[in-house]
Amino acid sequence: MDDPPHGPIDQLTPRELETLRAIALGLSAKEAAKLLNIAPRTVERHIDHIRLKTRTRNRSHMVAFAIANGLV
Asked: At residue 2, does pLDDT exceed 70?
């Protein structure tokens, strides 16, 4: 049996998914950090990882990716 294909969304950790949702809802890194109870720098690090894994160019592209994948 073949495994189902995995897309970029499957590569994200649960915390990265939470971060992506927060950013897609329009929160700043500082606001997302407060919501997720983590440091703003950690949010920025998650954003960097999300961009690499999803091959998105910037935050606007990340938001479009989140919408296209039903995260918001």
From this structure: no
Enter the tokens of residue 14: 């649960």
Q: Are 10 and 57 in contact (CB under 8 A)?
A: no
Single out the residue of 38, 42, 45, 49 nearest to residue 11, CA to CA: 49
Residue boundaries of the structural domains of the chain: 13-68
Look up the CATH architecture of domain 13-68: Orthogonal Bundle (1.10)
Q: What is the DSSP string of 4-49?
A: PP--GGGGS-HHHHHHHHHHHTT--HHHHHHHHTS-HHHHHHHHHH
